[in-house]
Amino acid sequence: KQILPALNVANCWEPSEMTQSAGNPLGLNQLGIFRDYTPELICSKILVQKPKKKLSYYLAGLIEGDGTIIVPTTERSAKGRINYPSIQIVFNLKDLPLALIIQKELGHGSLARKKGVNAYVLTINNYEGWILIVNLINGKMRTPKINALYKLIDWLNKRFKELNIRKAPIDKSLLIDNAWLSGLIEADGHLTVRTTTSGQYPKMECKLELSQRQRDQNGNSNLSFLEEIAEMLETKVKEIRLNKPNPEYRLRTTNLKGNIILETYLEKYPLYGSKYLDYKDWQKVLEIFKLGEHKQEKGIERIKSIKLGMNDRRTVLIWDHLNKFYNLD
């Protein structure tokens, strides 16, 4: 349904209530935060329901991908001000509706446009917010970022003796049994379609690609959790950018079976940002591969047509899928 002529990107959203700071209602006509945002329209009815408690795993994956837990190393700044921790989650500019829903469900945090970058940052700087996040993701983390969580727990336990928060070990449950991987893909995954029909070796592919620095800023290796993901998707982790200052590990789904495993997983534990829309198009391409039509002219043209509307080429963002977002209640 065409709401208005497409001018850049149209986001369709018809919210009954929106928030800029947690707990402060904001009507659509008051939403000045959108003035910096290229899409002209936001369309959809967001009626967040109260499903299963999967938010904790999803949030852990999201934070381990695009989040930061900052814990001060000194009690006071050079100016004598008390230093406090901060939990930050970065969202792509077009994923503002997702950021707002997460802010609403957490009931904490402020959301601001990041200067010079196409991103919004959700920042939690209050005691209740720290405790909530710790309780949600403690025991759900799988990457070296768990060390930042441990530092935050130490900071909280030191200053609030009554807490005595236990540091849960790194999660070793099966990836396929929870929403952690969907959170990580939301942050760092790329669902892509390749259509190279010219040259000596024409190629048609649909795949997930996930890359991480080989070592984080503290020198911890990211290989272990990537190998777990690769094993689940029946692929391998490869080293890339070896001649760069920060070499990376990368995994890609390289066969139909791995893509079907991923599809089954994402149907159970969905994406919720704009990548959900890319996933639904990616899924259409995958169906062409399942039918063996990706080598036929009709199938190739269909794949090319689908690809034209994916990722950065998408001109309309419909957010109805946020109706099914996880709820804390």
Can you tell me about this structure?
There is one protein chain. By secondary structure, the chain is an alpha+beta fold. It has 2 domains: 10-159, Endonuclease I-creI, CATH 3.10.28.10; 192-268 and 275-313, Roll (Endonuclease I-creI). It has helices at 55-66, 96-106, 127-137, 146-159, 180-188, 223-232, 256-268, 275-290, 297-307, and strands at 10-12, 18-19, 25-26, 67-70, 86-92, 110-113, 119-124, 189-196, 203-213, 237-240, 248-252, 316-318. The strands form 4 sheets. It has a 4-stranded antiparallel beta sheet. The protein has a 4-stranded antiparallel beta sheet with strand order 8-9-11-10. α1 packs parallel to α5, α7 packs across α8 and α8 runs antiparallel to α9 (297-307). The longest helix is centred in the last third of the chain and has 16 residues, at 275-290. One of its GO terms (cellular component) is mitochondrion. Residues 59-154, 181-285 form the Homing endonuclease LAGLIDADG domain. GO terms for molecular function: endonuclease activity. Pfam families: LAGLIDADG_1 (PF00961). Keywords: Mitochondrion.
